[in-house]
Amino acid sequence: MPTSKLNRLTRWGSAALALGLVPACSTSSKVTGDSTASLAQAQPSEMKEEAGSAQAPRDHDGVDEEPESAAEAGAPAPRMPSPKPSSASAGAALSAPVARDNGARMKRAEVLSGVDASAPATPPPPPPAKMHPPGSRMQPPEPVSQGNSFAEHAPNTFTETATDRFSTFAVDVDTASYAVSRRYLTQGALPPHAAVRVEEFVNYFKYRYTPPEQGAFTVHLEGAPSPFNANRHFVRVGVQGKSVSRSQRKPAHLVFLVDTSGSMNQQDKLPLAKEAMKLAVKNLNENDTVAIVTYAGSTRDVLSPTPATSLERIYKAIDSLESGGGTAMGSGMEMAYKHAVKKASGSVVSRVVVLTDGDANIGPNLSADTMLNSIQGYVKEGVTLSAIGFGMGNYRDDLMEKLADKGNGNCFYIDSYKEAKKVFEAQLTGTLEVIAKDVKIQVEFDPKVVRRYRLVGYENRDIADKDFRDDKVDAGEIGAGHSVTAVYEVELTGEKAALGTVRIRAKAPNGTEAAEQSFPFEQRMVRATLDAASPDFRFALAVAATADVLRGSPSARGWNLATAQKLAEGATDGQSDREEFTKLVARARGLLGNAVARDAN
């Protein structure tokens, strides 16, 4: 080949290689799904105000009330492009189906009128990434995300009591679903069905349950007629864990495992995570210690175990964190657990706190299952886990939920500095210290009194009735001061007798054998009218009903969110979180109303 021709080919090859290294010019066909940039571009003009709010962490006291009809709303619910096929990544190897919110138009059951309607589930657009100056430690960006993903669980249906009188499930104190759905609603979009978990909506709020005088918890039972169906009642099972003061709490060793990958390079991700860590550290005790591990394309020890009193050193380590590269979550988990297990004992709280958007695309352990298989030995030694989610656009809710479930911990989603203060300041002790583990609840209904029943939520916490007394079967954990609330919809026979019995089985934090308690659900606990029920009961019912509507439950078809809103407004009890919820219901009514009007046209 002539030398001149060879030189020309060499120059063309070099140019092609250079272009291939630029993300915007890459010709790779391996990435599927819509990019986060296309999601932001897909927002209609009427969404600009809400989309702009994602530019920085925000509080939610300013949620404006939405009109309840399409005519009053003035604009249709946001539209998105037509569906595009996408495949789940290797990191989504979960037992339940995964729903991806990647800008596709989703089928939504319209529950206000009792007919099916199609409404878009528009994800809030991610904030733009900030620029890094030349010479910074920013690594090449990671692959484009496929969008937010959530595990799908079919809503519970009614069970004939004569056929099966037992309802058994593990407790759940997670609250991520409510915070995620709140973000969708405040930014002008209905959350995807799979993003809504009823129990996490209900358990987000505090209820005035009397704490136990002895033991780990007490049970509070109550019932009242349904506001949606004259032939049905709702009953509530409330469990209150014992409180532990900050001074009484065991010494804690926290290992912050921080995602510093390129996808965390947004104001509501790594910068907010850094503020959350500072809040947590500021509220620790003098005997507590802190370590920091990061993961991106590789893992890194940023801070060895350090006394929590060394604030300047810890804050300096936190401030040094920068984002860039891929996401080797599996390797990071392994390193963090190796740190945590060194101090695990019955007298020390040893907990890994993962702060991430959940995206895991690089590393030897990609799925929750494979990651957990590598750390199960540490979990058995007493290391617990808090999975803290941030941001939108590539949020792996399905992964975060499963990590918390199998890691004997809890799952939160932080969308603002206000929410960070709630989790890491007001609720820190409960977030850290487990007071009872493998907690199972079994409700035995009397078929003479209860004809049919339906547990509203807890689908992913279902336990086989035969496993209630099998102490080898894993269940949920309750932290200090946490409460757990479950709502049932029931049809009564009219027989005036006890509805049944509620049993709780749980182990001590370091125990291997469970203890069991039982509580009769007496007829006197069922109020004659809904107005006679406690404010806590009425508010919990309003929250459960709203969540059931938002997830498109067939059992909630025909339920009116106006009724749920009115019920909640009469039971706010002066609590700001409850008042915020009533405004979110109003906003959801407007969005659902817009969907009805659009489809009618």
From TrEMBL:
<protein>
    <submittedName>
        <fullName>DUF3520 domain-containing protein</fullName>
    </submittedName>
</protein>
<dbReference type="InterPro" id="IPR051266">
    <property type="entry name" value="CLCR"/>
</dbReference>
<dbReference type="Pfam" id="PF12034">
    <property type="entry name" value="YfbK_C"/>
</dbReference>
<feature type="region of interest" description="Disordered">
    <location>
        <begin position="25"/>
        <end position="101"/>
    </location>
</feature>
<feature type="compositionally biased region" description="Pro residues">
    <location>
        <begin position="121"/>
        <end position="131"/>
    </location>
</feature>
<feature type="compositionally biased region" description="Low complexity">
    <location>
        <begin position="85"/>
        <end position="99"/>
    </location>
</feature>
<dbReference type="InterPro" id="IPR036465">
    <property type="entry name" value="vWFA_dom_sf"/>
</dbReference>
<feature type="region of interest" description="Disordered">
    <location>
        <begin position="115"/>
        <end position="152"/>
    </location>
</feature>
<feature type="domain" description="VWFA">
    <location>
        <begin position="253"/>
        <end position="428"/>
    </location>
</feature>
<dbReference type="InterPro" id="IPR021908">
    <property type="entry name" value="YfbK_C"/>
</dbReference>
<feature type="compositionally biased region" description="Basic and acidic residues">
    <location>
        <begin position="46"/>
        <end position="61"/>
    </location>
</feature>
<feature type="compositionally biased region" description="Polar residues">
    <location>
        <begin position="25"/>
        <end position="44"/>
    </location>
</feature>
<dbReference type="InterPro" id="IPR002035">
    <property type="entry name" value="VWF_A"/>
</dbReference>
<dbReference type="Pfam" id="PF12450">
    <property type="entry name" value="vWF_A"/>
</dbReference>
<dbReference type="InterPro" id="IPR022156">
    <property type="entry name" value="Uncharacterised_YfbK_N"/>
</dbReference>
<dbReference type="Pfam" id="PF00092">
    <property type="entry name" value="VWA"/>
</dbReference>
